[in-house]
Every structure is written in structure tokens, then in C-alpha cells.
């Protein structure tokens, strides 16, 4: 009681304000870096949207993993004038013999828009840890690119992932991508957390903005895989335009290897890469009990062998823990359904986007709550994942600056600046995460965290999942 008399609430608030660089209340940090709120999309004649020269030249080239283990690559591109060739010629850096693979092409219409010829070609049985050259546009305008396959899957394989979410196509988006490319940590694969082009914000969901976005990211996505997660801006559900097939443009343009993980939908799937087991989930597909996604994840998690892939990582668009007022509680229903599994199977980290800010949680869970027992406050739980929201790619909606106050105990660091993340796996026990703010120098870490692997190197006491 005496302490309360000395430290009245006003005095405590004053103390918090005195901690000037960051607000340090309730154990978490709220970065006070302020940035402008709104950045428009880059104009159509921007150099980053330039159409490559040559008749029917392939454009919007991007690659993603094409199988479960990293020996396959899906190469996708669009030809604008006529179908052209579905062929990919590819060869390892030290070989003179070109291999040939045949793909397919698809098209779609969306209201008054008709897409170009969207090609997808999967090449398989590649050597690990090898640089490959590839050529597309055979017969007309040939374009050449390259990529490097990952090391063979194994428990102590170092590997560096980049994390980008909610990118859009503004000047800030361009800064984010440049910052990622220039980061000396050199991410080898992008884990993309949903919300790609934001074309649905245009009248009639102007799909030419899907095309500009594809040309914008080509400079990176043609050379390293981007692992795709679908967000709400991929839904493109527009009954007023008689467009009622959800995810139509996204699913025609961005193929993923869902069948190899026995998924029945491109919206949820898994891959292994290096020492990581990556599980992609869909916040905008059914996930309640007995739904296809629920059953798939229920059957998928027990398959993860931490002696081969120690790092278990889940990707989803909508965060299930956030202290931002934007999209607050939107992930609550998925938390109710999936959180106990994340704890039971010791998921190391859940990355999400959607909220246009950065936030890192402590290891917490809220699985004890059963509606009647009142235990609805998250508690420290070393078996629980760290939740990282990184929807700060820089789209035209601007940053989500409305934080809930006071900062809740589960929130370790939060800031409404644009940026990207790096998840740098060292071995089976340690990984280093860093968050890089766009306004800083390329090597600056605005926030960082050493991960101790939840299976091999847990810290502290663990709570066992209750159900
Ligand atoms: Fe979103």
C-alpha cells in the first residue's frame, strides 16, 4: 500500500514517458519510430514495371519450390501476345548439356480483363546445392535466369530465409524489396506472408495491377524461390462483377507444390527446405473441425521428424496474436482451432502478415481456457511458438499505427514501420531472427531474437497441451 502511495498512476505514466527511445511498459517495447502514413502505388510507367523487350517476351518470371524436399522448382512466366513455348531449358552451371522440361499454360478472365498466357513448368530431380541456369521464351524472345538449389535436407544445415508480407506496389514496397536484396545477410528464399498486388483495391479489381506486380518482383523472384501464402487481397471475390470464384487470379498465377504434401488445395501445403519444415496455412479457407484444411494439418503435424528437420515453421496471413487495433481478434477463431496443436508439436515460430506493422511475441499460449474456467489470459509457455507479425512490406494502405494500450504482456516488441525479416538458421539448436526497418542502413537490425529450437534446445518449463 505504501508503494501505491508513492508511485501513483500519474507518476508511473511519467516514468514511462521518460524512457524516451522506446516505451518500456509491461515488459514489452513499442518502437517510437514514426514514418509517413501513406504511399501511393508506383505509376504504370515506372521502370520497375517495364515490359521486357522483344516479341512475346516472357515476363513476370517467378520461381517457387516444386516438390517436398527441394530438388524441384516450379518456373512460372507470362507471355503477352501468343502462347509461345511451354519449354524450359536448364543446365547446371558446370554442365554444357541443356536439359528440357515441358510445362503447361493457363488463362483466365476476370470481369473485363483477360490474362496473358500463364506458363508453369516443374523441373525435378535437380542436384542439391547447385546453381542452375534456365531459359524460357524458346522460339521467340529467349530470356535467361538462374537459381541455386538448397542443400540436402538435414538437421544441422544452415539456411537463411527472408520474410516479406503485404508488399503491394508502392514506392515503399520498392524500398522494402531493395532493402531485402541489399541486406548483407543474403536471404536465399522468401517466405511471403500473403497480400501480393493489392489489385483488388482498384475499380473492377483491375488485374493489370497483378501484371505490374509480377514484373516488379521478377528481379528477385526469378532468381530465388518465393514460398507463397494467400492473404485476403488474393480472394478477389466480387459477386457484383459476377466473379464468385475465390482466389481466381492468385491461383492461376502462383502455383505451389501442394499435391506433394498430400494437400487437396494450393492454399495449404508443406515443404522441407534445408533444416526447416514449412507449413503454409490459409486464413481465408475453412479450418474448423472436419474441414479439409483441419484434417490435413491434423495428419501433417505428426509427420514432422525433428531429427531431420528441427525447425518447424508455420506461415499464415492473419496473425493469431496481435496487440494492434487493426484487424484485432481476426485470427481468434484460427487460434481456438489450431493453437493447442502448435503447442503440442512445439512449433518454433508462426509468421504472419495482414497487420501493417511489425510485432514479436514472447512464447505464450492460451490453451487452458475452456469457456467456463475464466483462464483466458495468455501465459508463458516454452512449448508455444513465438508469433511474429511482419505485414510491413509497404502497401498503399499505409502502416497500422493504432496500437492497443497498454502493451500487453505477451508482446515483446512492436512498431508500425515498414521493413522485412531474416530467419537465419545456424544449426539444429539455434537460429537468429532479425527485423530490418526500411529507413535504416542495410545491415541495421531494428529488432532481433535468438531462437532456441523448441525440440532440441528448449528453455525453461513447458506446459503440456490440454486437449
Ligand atoms: Fe491482409
From TrEMBL:
Lineage, top ranks: Eukaryota, Viridiplantae, Streptophyta, Embryophyta, Tracheophyta
Domain Purple acid phosphatase C-terminal, chain residue ranges per copy: 384-443
The protein's required cofactors: Fe cation; Zn(2+)
Top-rank taxon: Eukaryota
Signal peptide from the UniProt entry: 1-27
Pfam families cross-referenced by the UniProt entry: Metallophos (PF00149), Metallophos_C (PF14008), Pur_ac_phosph_N (PF16656)
EC number: 3.1.3.2
First-tier enzyme category under EC: hydrolase
Record's protein name: Purple acid phosphatase
Family stated for the protein in its record: Belongs to the metallophosphoesterase superfamily. Purple acid phosphatase family.
Species the sequence originates in: Gossypium darwinii
Catalytic activity: a phosphate monoester + H2O = an alcohol + phosphate
Listed InterPro entries: Calcineurin-like_PHP (IPR004843), FN3_dom (IPR003961), Metallo-depent_PP-like (IPR029052), MPP_PAP (IPR041792), PAPs-like (IPR039331), PAPs_C (IPR025733), PAPs_N (IPR015914), Purple_acid_Pase-like_N (IPR008963)
Domain Purple acid phosphatase N-terminal residues, every copy: 58-149
Keyword field: Glycoprotein, Hydrolase, Iron, Metal-binding, Signal, Zinc
Calcineurin-like phosphoesterase domain residues: 160-358
Alphabetized GO MF terms: acid phosphatase activity; metal ion binding
